[in-house]
Amino acid sequence: PELLFYPRPFWLRFKVLNDEEKPVSFLLELDKHLFEYVNIYVPGKDGYQVKRETFTTPLDQREIQHKHFVHRLFANPGETTFYAFVDSWNKQSKESVPLRIWSENNFVRQSSDDGILTGIVVGLFLFVFLYNIFIYFSVRDLSYIFLSVVTLCQLTLEISSSGIGFKYLWPDVPLLTWPMLYINTSLVMGFNLLFYRSFIGIYRYTPKLDKLILFVSWLFFGLALAIFILPRSLFPGMLWFVFSADHFYTLLVLVPTILALKNKNRSGIFALIAIIFYYLGLIKFGLTDTELIQY
Question: Could you give the 3-state DSSP secondary structure of residue 176?
Answer without folding.
Answer: helix
